[in-house]
């Protein structure tokens, strides 16, 4: 990534002291050009315009910065204007170290500092310290860089200059990142970002987003890094800062390269290098040539790779840029390792590692260790290669330490909260402005209406009297209409209640006739046999258990029937609880086993023992009983009735009663659960009321289930209904 990822971006901040709106650059240039052509003696106004124009040109054309600043210094010396000399020297020093002329920049910075101290100009002095710190960071002299940046920070805090304070935090973060202290770097980056957000300074925000993105990239969190780069690119594009845009293009290209998307990486690096050439940005060109060399190397185009790396190395050696020189040397080692030319790879990797150790940058040191590991392994020096591999792993662990990730998460949450608060404040401000506008509009409207009303007062008095009379009549009519509507509503409600009562009565009678006829007929036949002495005393004793069982079942049935009657009332409350389905099914199957056997029907209970439902057990028992009796009614000799249950989904079981009996037609299926149907006689001429299925549907739905049926004439019928899952109890449900 470009030298300390924002050495180009740091140039977007406040860099001069007549810092004016960029939209005024053209008009300022016109004034300056006109004054330069003038033969009159220079004055402070002309010099200040020159220095201001120089500062405004830096983002787009550093050469213009150098030109106008030198003019400003020359004119200032001519009239001995100390402030103009210092301001111009800061601009020329800034441009010179950006172009790699560090010795010249140091001389200019030192002279400017002396002047600012004599003038007691703390703002100019803090700006000079900050730029000095940036330059030393570029030269990998981190102690000097931090010394100057802390001097600048102290001055800005003292005089409450938040914009410069934010810039100091950002540049201190860059130094700590360069030293490999990612956690500390994040602290300073987010301090800078919070101030930038507070000031709503888009240029500062763009630089801070890019810095954080570079840390994420170093931690190999590539999607998150791209997210921050895109935020930064959008802001830079809005400020028309070419240096910033070029830097973001390069950083995105590096992410693409890390993700092995080499064609896209070349695309972005090419866009970046075109901007760097236009700006004469030596640092940017070095980084871009190195990245292009690595991309071509990964694509197997080694001649292009070596050519680009060689160009980068020449520039970095000429301008003594230690960071880029180290990256380029490691790049040579990488490409030669790809070609298995381990002799050349070793030479460059060793030189790269030496500079990486001098830099202290974790990312550069880890890359150097990795390439040197590959080289030594290729040369057969496996012990040395293993040591370098361990060093590489330790460096990578340092880059991806948990503390950095935790801080990143914490700062992101804080940033999101701060952004949200700012949005809410802006929305409130917008609402207040809109409210004030509406008040003004309303006042204007009120004035207009007042004039109209005053002109119509005479007509309104007459109209009002007539209107009052009409309103009284309308009120009387409305009152009468309301009474009529209320009476009609009351009559309709009463009619509906009567209809519901009749329906309930019909259902009760039908159910009683349907479900009590069979057990009562059985008991009547038994008592007839006893009365006629048809059976012997021993036979009577043998039949007593069966009779008692029938009586017990009939009594139980009456209890459950009364329960269903209660369920039709408005105040019925469903008493759902968990129970084993097997207990109820086994009891009902046993109760009807004899009746099925008399018709030659096989009744099978296939319900598993472990199925637990959550519903009203009596309701489910009544439903199963109705389905079994219905299946027996329409089954023939040698037919089979099977009761089964299985898991339907995460919330329900499905219980099925399937028979191989006579089946039903499509017409019967469509009417089955919708209304009372004319019940067909069974296979032994059994009769019914046609209400059993409505009975079942009511109870299933009250238990939060649903019921359905499938049937084929002549092949049988399958009734299924769902019940909710229950929780397994320690004891099983006892069925009397």
UniProtKB/TrEMBL annotation:
Transmembrane regions listed in the UniProt entry: 444-464
Highest taxon of the lineage: Bacteria
Catalytic reactions on record: ATP + protein L-histidine = ADP + protein N-phospho-L-histidine
Domain Histidine kinase: 511-727
One Pfam family, short name: TPR_8
GO cellular component terms attached to this protein's record: plasma membrane
UniProtKB keywords: Kinase, Membrane, Phosphoprotein, TPR repeat, Transferase, Transmembrane, Transmembrane helix
GO molecular function: histidine phosphotransfer kinase activity; phosphorelay sensor kinase activity
Enzyme class: transferase
Catalytic activity, EC: 2.7.13.3
TPR repeats: 126-159, 166-199, 206-239, 286-319
Name this polypeptide is given: histidine kinase
Organism of derivation: Mucilaginibacter gotjawali
């Amino acid at each position: 990534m470009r030298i300390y990822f924002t050495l180009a971006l740091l140039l977007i901040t406040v860099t001069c002291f007549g810092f004016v709106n960029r939209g005024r650059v053209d008009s300022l240039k016109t004034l300056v050009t006109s004054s330069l052509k003038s033969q009159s003696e220079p004055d402070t106004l002309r010099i200040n315009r020159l220095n201001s124009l120089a500062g405004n040109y830096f983002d787009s054309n550093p050469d213009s910065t150098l030109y106008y600043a030198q003019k400003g210094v020359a004119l200032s010396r001519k009239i001995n204007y100390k402030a103009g000399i210092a301001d111009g020297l800061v601009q020329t020093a800034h441009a010179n170290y950006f172009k790699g002329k560090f010795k010249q920049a140091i001389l200019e910075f030192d002279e400017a500092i002396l002047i600012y101290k004599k003038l007691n100009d703390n703002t100019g002095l803090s700006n000079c310290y900050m730029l000095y710190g940036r330059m030393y960071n570029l030269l990998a002299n981190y102690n000097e860089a931090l010394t100057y940046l802390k001097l600048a920070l102290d001055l800005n805090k003292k005089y409450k200059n938040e914009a410069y304070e934010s810039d100091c935090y950002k540049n201190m973060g860059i130094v700590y990142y360069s030293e490999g202290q990612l956690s500390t770097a994040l602290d300073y980056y987010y301090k800078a970002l919070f101030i930038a957000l507070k000031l709503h300074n888009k240029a500062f925000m763009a630089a801070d987003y890019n810095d954080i993105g570079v840390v994420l990239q170093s931690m190999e969190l590539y999607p998150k890094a791209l997210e921050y780069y895109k935020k930064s690119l959008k802001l830079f594009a809005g400020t028309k800062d070419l240096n910033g845009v070029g830097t973001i293009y390069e950083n995105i290209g590096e992410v693409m390269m890390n993700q092995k998307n080499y064609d896209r990486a070349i695309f972005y690096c090419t866009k970046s290098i075109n901007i760097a050439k236009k700006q004469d940005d030596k640092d940017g060109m070095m980084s871009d040539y190195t990245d292009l060399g690595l991309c071509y190397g990964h694509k197997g185009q080694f001649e292009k790779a070596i050519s680009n790396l060689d160009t980068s190395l020449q520039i970095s050696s000429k301008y003594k840029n230690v960071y880029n020189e180290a990256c380029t040397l490691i790049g040579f080692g990488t490409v030669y390792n790809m070609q298995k030319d381990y002799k050349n790879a070793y030479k460059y990797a060793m030189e790269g590692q030496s500079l990486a150790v001098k830099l202290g940058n974790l990312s550069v040191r880890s890359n150097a260790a990795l390439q040197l590991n590959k080289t030594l392994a290729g040369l057969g020096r496996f012990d040395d290669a293993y040591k370098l591999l361990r060093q590489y792993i330790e460096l990578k662990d340092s880059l991806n330490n948990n503390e950095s990730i935790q801080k990143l998460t914490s700062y992101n949450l804080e940033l999101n909260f701060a952004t949200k608060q700012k949005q809410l404040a802006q929305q409130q401000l917008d609402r207040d402005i809109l409210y004030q506008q509406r008040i003004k509009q309303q006042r204007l409207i009120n004035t207009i209406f007042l004039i109209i009303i005053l002109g119509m007062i005479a007509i309104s008095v007459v109209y009002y009297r007539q209107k009052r009379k009409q309103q009284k009549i309308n009120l009387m009519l409305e009152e009468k209409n309301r009474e009529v509507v209320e009476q009609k509503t009351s009559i309709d409600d009463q009619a509906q209640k009567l209809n519901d009562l009749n329906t309930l009565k019909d259902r009760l009678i039908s159910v009683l006739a349907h479900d009590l006829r069979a057990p009562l007929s059985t008991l009547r036949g038994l008592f007839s046999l006893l009365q006629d002495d048809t059976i012997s005393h021993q036979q009577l004793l043998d039949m007593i258990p069966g009779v008692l069982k029938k009586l017990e079942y009939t009594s139980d049935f009456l209890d459950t029937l009364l329960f269903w009657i209660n369920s039709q009332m408005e105040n019925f409350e469903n008493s759902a609880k968990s129970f084993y389905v097997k207990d109820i099914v086994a009891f009902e199957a046993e109760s009807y086993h004899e009746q099925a056997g008399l018709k030659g029907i096989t009744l099978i209970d296939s319900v598993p023992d472990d199925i637990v439902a959550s519903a009203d057990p009596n309701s489910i028992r009544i439903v199963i009983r109705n389905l079994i009796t219905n299946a027996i009614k329409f089954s023939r000799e040698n037919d089979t009735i099977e009761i089964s249950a299985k898991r339907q989904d995460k919330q329900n079981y499905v219980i099925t009663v399937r028979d191989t009996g006579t089946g039903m037609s499509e017409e019967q299926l469509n009417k089955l659960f919708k209304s009372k149907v004319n019940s067909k006689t069974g296979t032994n001429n059994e009769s019914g009321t046609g209400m059993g299925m409505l009975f079942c549907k009511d109870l299933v739905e009250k238990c939060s289930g649903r019921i359905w049926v499938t049937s084929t004439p002549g092949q049988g019928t399958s009734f299924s209904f769902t019940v909710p899952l229950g929780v397994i109890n320690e004891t099983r449900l006892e069925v009397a």
